[in-house]
Amino acid sequence: MVYRFSYSKKSKTIILGYEGLVSGSTQNGIFEYIVDLGHPLKTFNIHDPFNNVLSLSAGSLLYKDSNDNPVFFNWPVLNIDLDIENVTILKNDIDILNKECYNTIYFNSSTIPHDYPLVFNLLDPVSQEDLDEGIIDPLPIRWSEQLKLFYCDFIVPKNTGPKTIPYQISSPFNLITNEAFTPLRVSKTRFDNDGPLITSLSNTTNYNSSTIGWRMEIIDFGNGFSKGYIKAVGSFDSSILTVNFTSANVSTTSGQGTIYDGEYNLILDIDVNKPCKTQLYTIEYIYLEDTNKRFSVYSRFDKSFKQEKDPLRYVSDSIPSVISTNSVCKTTISDESPPRMSSFSITSQELDVGSFSYRFVNITIIAEDDESGILYSQRPKAYITASDMQTIMYDSEIQAFSLNKGTYLFQIEIPVGFGYPDPLLVSIYGIINTAGFYTGYSNDDPDFIKSTIISTSLSGNSVLLGYEPLYYYSKSNIIIYGRLLSDTDLVVIAYSNGTKRGYSPVPIGQSILSIPRDDFEIVGPFDITAFSKSHATNTLRVNPIYYEKYSDPKPTSTPIPTNKPQRCLGSPLCGGADHGTCIENQGCVCNSPWIGIDCLSQVIIIPPPKVNNTDPTIEIPITDGGNSGETNTTTIFYKSLISLVSLREISINNTPVEGKTFRFEKWTFKSIDSFTNQYHTTISVSSTQTTNVTVTLKWYENETIVEFANQNLKMNPSSIKYTIEIQNFPFESSLNSLQLIMQASFLSNKIQDTCSAKEFGDTTSGDNSNYLKIQIENKSLYGRFIKRCITDDASNIFLLENQLLDSEMNAVESPNQIQTYIGIKMPWFEHYSIIDPDFSVLVNSDSASSLSNSNCSSKDSKLSTIKIVGIVIGCVAFVCIVSVAIIYSIQLKKKESRFIKKVDVRLKSYNSEISKTNE
């Protein structure tokens, strides 16, 4: 016969009884239990009535089947590695000074099943202590079909630890901590993990006013005092008197008391003007709690509480003299006999501990004392004991009272399966008279023995027993626990506003119902009833946890980091003292007009580029006299091209959102002044939604200091700045981001003995930006991409991410032509986002051939007509033009204007082909 089951949860032993019997009998049955997988399971124990135990762990032999094959015990959950990616926290750099933070963590995994049991734990000092004390449990991690992400809503307690809050994600077998993930940072707090303290304690017994009690001063300078409770016990009759109080009971007689520092007068409920027993009352227990549920406990006899939790630890020297107070009764009655129980009645002595309606029983007793009378302040208690000695205590309520007689009612609900299959035994204790004598009645009392035995049965009825905690406004499925729920086909929820809705639940085994959520907001308690074809269950009241509402997750601003430390380059360092200065842990800071991470490049002073009135594409041509062995009659042309390619939404998984990539097509042009032009386009995101993009191009003739995103930036002479504003983009999720793709190209008509190179990295000038440098020979196009954007308000500065997309976009690269794509990824915004890259053309002290990553052609390599045709087939149209020019010995100096026009046409054609390829 199976008697019970058990397993260990931290330092506690969890006992499971017949509440899990879903079919069969105690000798041969099927049991089903909901087990907390937030803690590693090592063994599961099966007990019989004689306390014989079978301990099972993974791999334990259960039995051999009919074919003599061994059957082993295994946990119903696989051991899966926690391969977690893209961890994102909804709100970071949080302010938890005197307020909680309602937050969410999101992550993805390609290996973890969506229904795999995962839990999330905050490990800050406040949360860690609550976990250790069993006050809170690990939070379940769920899967969102809408976001295609795992997520967990959580509440960061106020005034917990500073700087960063550690956390962990765990399964029944593995756990992973936050060291590898995004940190949860705290911007403002005032750490307080201590419960309220008593700084003074004194007796306030006043025999003239007939009040007996204590005055205590309570301080809690961090969170503030919330509520408390004291228990005092009489020295003669062991009567128990309690005082519950809150911060609203603070005394104002000695000044303005506050929750942070206040006096409280705690008066015992003793009427010394009526007959009573003169005796000493001693405080045996004190419980104090602050507004953040940090508690302190004093127990006179139980020393298991931590010393640092004792609210009296700073006044311990004075405790013996003030912890007790004397009650002097003005009227006493001589009585040497205890009171008696004259009547005991019970509504039923047969309980079905498997049902929802027949587990309730009422017991009524009458206590009498003809000599001294019944003590009004004391309430008798009932004890229900099972055969394994598990006992439940119930308090009574007064139904009627006179000096010599009291009628008391016990309303008792027996837990599902409790005591089955053996009888339950009832005992009554705690009846006290005013003379200080008490009495009690055990279940074998001869006068009441027939009435104090309750037989038990276990029916097959469906019962709702509990629920998984959920938050206000939660969109997660509602998880209900119970018994025999597999036949449920409908649940009805009665919401707090009177609305009733029906749902089709998903049964999980016999014990769980998962109720799919709809768009109805949970804003208060609600009632759930489950229905099958044959019957209805009890109604279960669900009390959600308050959680701050947000319409959609909105990211919070992240401090803009500085570029990582870099070493100074060049020989001499930074080009020498005339070029720049080496700053330790930063790199080279260049003197004007030098530029770059080694201060070996200069901005080429050129006239403003020709205005493009079609789209925000800039072409910057430059020429170079003969060098590198060329004749003086040879002119080398360089041309840079900067354009906007597309806009696309990026998911939290860092992948493009399907159907949310938009290429730029038609632009409207507006000239602001001789150096500033503006372009505008509208993108149709859907049939009803549009996004506006405005690009302002400004040419800087001279060195200028400009401000963007609360930082001063130096604009080099002959540089162009793109100010791009994107308005009202309809994101699918506020966890997503938006990426603007720009293209930059640099070309030369020199083919032989030519080298090109590309660099992308962090600047060293202190502007905390990225730079892009695409170089052919000793000329280059230089782009600066600021790591900041302005979002929704001039004061909202957000971090953005710049990255090369060349491998994804199939960028072209040859010795005399470089094409690159840059993705500028900005975070979610509600109204608008502004970014501000800029570009210059440089002349470099060193040729590209000196760089380790250069791409070079040979001077001796002669191009045949067949090779030229091959290059044309390879879509390198520009090279074809130059090659043909060489074959026919056309003097390029005389054909300069014709060449530039051809290059212009070829570039536009080339860009068109690339656009079609990428669509």
TrEMBL record:
Keyword Transmembrane: yes
Keyword list, A-Z: Membrane, Transmembrane, Transmembrane helix
Residue ranges of the TM segments: 868-890
A Pfam cross-reference name: ComC_SSD
Domain named EGF-like: residues: 588-599
Keyword 4Fe-4S: no
Name recorded for this polypeptide: EGF-like domain-containing protein
Organism: Dictyostelium purpureum
